[in-house]
Amino acid sequence: MQFLTSLVLSAFVGYAGAWYTGFIDGNFALLLLVATVVTGIYWLAERFVFLPQRQRAAAQLAAETAQRRAELAKMGIDKVDTNIKEAQEKLLMQPWWLDWTAGLFPVIIVVFILRSFLFEPFKIPSGSMIPTLHIGDLILVNKFHYGIRLPVANTKLTEGTPVQRGDVMVFRYPPKPSVDYIKRVVGVPGDEVAYLNKKLSINGKEVPSQDLPDFFDESTMRYFKHRSETLGAKPHQTIQDDDRPAFVPGADQFVGRENCNYTVEGVTCKVPAGHYFMMGDNRDNSLDSRYWGFVPDANIVGKAFFVWMNFGNLKRIGAFD
């Protein structure tokens, strides 16, 4: 078992190392699922096989010691060194290969349940969602809001709350599903989304917005045009770069592109069934649905709702819309 466990642990380390060095595209959800299953098997084996074996060995030692004492007592010898406590402790001690597998199972199963079905943490790596989310924000994503899904397979088990316009959503990036993206839901199935001359319209109606004082972005040390926009029930803020043109350069040949019309003024798209149109709040600095297309329902990870830490700015902590 020691050799087998060494191979298993080496495989985990090798996978993590190859992922870290960029040799492979890692899948943390899959890695966590496998770790949960493997450590769970070891935990069951420890509980029902290995621990009872060690307990029987300790009990046998105690019985043999008691028998020896009785035999010596018959011979008139009653002062013998028969302290077996230390020996019993060594017999009952969990070996290293169980300590690193079965011993970790309670922690791993808790992390697996929390991350797979309740809340998952993410770190914001770019400025595409400024001013709502800043670079370095550590956020929480509600995994059950849109329905509970099986980990890895992402198959929906419950319906949950329907996706709403204005939601900040984490999803698997359609061109590369191993990568997680975060954007705002702009269009739901059946919507006609138009972003022309930097003005957003849904189904032919311009989205209500209000000008705000210019926004200073500390990550770029620049001022940007600042607006309050109301897509859903609550308003959110967006910024625009007047130096950027309105047209969308370099859009991919994505599935459903025939639903979109690109002009010098921008883009108009009809959102197909079971898909969503996503945009960043930093409208001129966001690689979003304008460039790579629609997000299928199967790619949804969850709804982002809370900044739990930003080590560069503690004032960032709190809920957001």
UniProtKB/TrEMBL annotation:
Principal subcellular localisation of the protein: membrane
This protein's GO CC annotations = membrane
First-level EC class? hydrolase
Report if keyword Protease is assigned.
Answer: yes
**Pfam families documented for this protein:** Peptidase_S26 (PF10502)
Catalyzed chemical reaction(s)? Cleavage of hydrophobic, N-terminal signal or leader sequences from secreted and periplasmic proteins
Q: Which residues form the Peptidase S26 domain?
A: 98-309
Q: Where in the cell is it found?
A: Membrane
Mind telling me what this protein is named?
A: Signal peptidase I
